[in-house]
Write a structure and sequence with these properties.
The complex is a heterodimer. Chain A is mainly α. Chain A has a domain of about 70 residues: Orthogonal Bundle (Arc Repressor Mutant, subunit A). Chain A has 9 helices and no strands. By secondary structure, chain B is of the alpha+beta class. Chain B is built from 6 helices and 11 strands. In chain B, strands 1-2-3-10-5-8 form a 6-stranded antiparallel β-sheet, covered by helices on one side. In chain B, strands 7-6-9 form a 3-stranded antiparallel β-sheet, with no helix packed on it. In chain B, strands 4-11 form a two-stranded antiparallel sheet. In chain B, helix 1 crosses helix 3 and helix 2 packs across helix 3. The longest helix of chain B has 20 residues. At the A-B interface, helix 4, helix 5, helix 6, helix 7 and helix 8 of A face helix 1, helix 2, helix 3, helix 4 and helix 5 of B.
Chain lengths: ~220, ~220
């Protein structure tokens, strides 16, 4: 399905965009031998934003495969932790990844990391397919290619997302357990604590800044 | 609008909406408030980032061997024309509310509930009820308490109760501890989106009889 030319094109882009780790491993599996650079390292989420841009602009299936091999197993694992059986979780994970391809133009890296955006797609799929409910969504703020998100905003948001991930990983076990329970659907809203204790102040301020800029452009 | 809002969503509502565990009617109120409030839009995005971080941390589940090819087939099978984005609503009501009505205010099918107050129930799942309330300027909604949680989002006009004044975009979160009598401000009729996860308990005799008909 992937010619060597496709794989080469990816390696070509890696000069300016180091491909996310893990993605490389699957490309290697396509016949073209590429040395895996690092087995496991801190994920650079900024790179995923550029991979999604390639999917959006070039409909690049090799870029999509890199994203797929990283995120599809996580989406499936997330849905299974939310109480979905393996076969339905697999089906939904595939649908989530297909949605990602179709909605790549809606991804705004100044407001969400790739992981966050994919989480929201997976969550919506869970509500739709598993809870069989409608999910009212807020009005979106319109933006298009003529309003590319500010690069500095996008970079700052990716850094904040990484910091947040690290902070969550370091939470006391009991507190982390409660937050996981909330997100895996084991708590009703009235069971969620009034004070979450999550350090969300700085990431929220970043996103607010990006929203203000977007509002300003719309005027 | 977004700078004049004083009453916002709570962290627990935002977290539950982000997790996707709110009853549909509550999700509607949250989505409608966020449509009007950039502060809560940013707060929600930060809660979504928590979900993203938790998903990132999930250990990989094994996919079927053909998962990637199956996904490509799924993509090829679907029309690839870009879906329309949810553009901002034109009119008074925020877009998510218009989606439930099938139009703006002029499309609402009001039913009188007495004393000039009108309501329209919106079709959501039965765990919780959503309705639009139309309160004429200066009129009151009967004194009531709650067994569960009641969210009241002002879409037009303003009301005041024992707690504070609530203007456009403001949301009041009332739990069972609160007995209140919302009164619409003089000057403009007040339109609210009210959602409850349990029937209201009215204090007076007549509203108690009316309650089965109100379905609130």
């Amino acid at each position: 399905m992937f010619s060597d030319a496709d794989a080469l094109e990816i390696t070509g882009t890696s000069a300016d965009v180091p491909p996310p780790v893990g993605a490389l491993l699957s490309i290697r599996g396509n016949g073209k031998s590429i040395e895996p650079v690092i087995e496991k390292t801190e994920e650079h989420t900024q790179d995923w934003a550029q991979v999604i841009a390639r999917i959006r602009d070039k409909r690049d299936r090799a870029a999509f495969q890199r994203l797929f091999s990283h995120f599809a197993p996580r989406v499936k694992a997330f849905l299974m932790k939310s109480g979905t059986d393996a076969s339905l979780a697999e089906e939904c994970a595939q649908e989530v990844m297909a949605t990602l391809w179709q909605k790549a133009h809606m991804f705004d890296p100044s407001r969400a990391s790739a992981a966050t955006w994919i989480f929201t797609i997976a969550r919506n799929r869970r509500i739709d397919a598993i809870r069989k409910q409608r999910r009212p969504e807020p009005e979106d703020l319109p933006w298009g290619p003529e309003q590319e998100p500010d690069q500095a905003d996008a970079l700052a948001l990716q850094q904040e997302s990484e910091k947040l991930g690290a902070a969550i990983a370091q939470l006391p076990e009991k507190q982390k357990d409660l937050i996981e329970k909330a997100y895996f659907g084991d708590l009703t809203h009235s069971e969620i604590a009034e004070e979450t204790g999550l350090p969300l102040g700085t990431i929220k301020s970043r996103i607010r800044l990006a929203l203000d800029r977007l509002r300003h452009q719309m005027k | 609008m977004t700078d004049t809002i004083k009453h916002h969503l709570s962290d627990k509502l935002l977290m539950a909406y982000s997790a996707g565990t709110l009853p549909e009617a509550f999700s509607l109120a949250v989505a409608a408030h966020i449509s009007m409030c950039d502060e809560c839009r940013a707060r929600l995005a930060s809660f979504d980032a928590v979900g993203g971080a938790l998903m990132e941390e999930c250990s990989d589940a094994d996919l079927s061997e053909t998962a990637f090819e199956d996904t490509l087939a799924l993509i090829d099978a679907v029309d690839m024309t870009a879906p329309a984005t949810a553009a901002p609503a034109i009119g008074t009501l925020p877009r998510p509310v218009q989606d439930y009505i099938g139009g703006d205010l002029d499309a609402v099918k009001w039913k009188s509930v007495g004393m000039g107050v009108k309501q329209a129930i919106l079709p959501t799942s039965r765990e919780a009820t959503a309705r639009l309330l139309y309160i004429p300027a200066g009129a009151a909604v009967p004194d009531h308490g709650h067994r569960g949680t009641e969210l009241t989002l002002v879409l037009q006009g303003a009301f005041a109760d024992e707690v504070d004044r609530f203007g456009p975009g403001d949301i009041e979160i009332a739990d069972e501890d609160l007995d209140h009598t919302p009164v619409a401000e003089v000057g403009a009729d007040c339109i609210c989106l009210a959602v409850t996860d349990a029937p209201l308990r009215f204090r007076g005799f007549i509203p108690r009889i009316a309650q089965p008909f109100l379905r609130i």
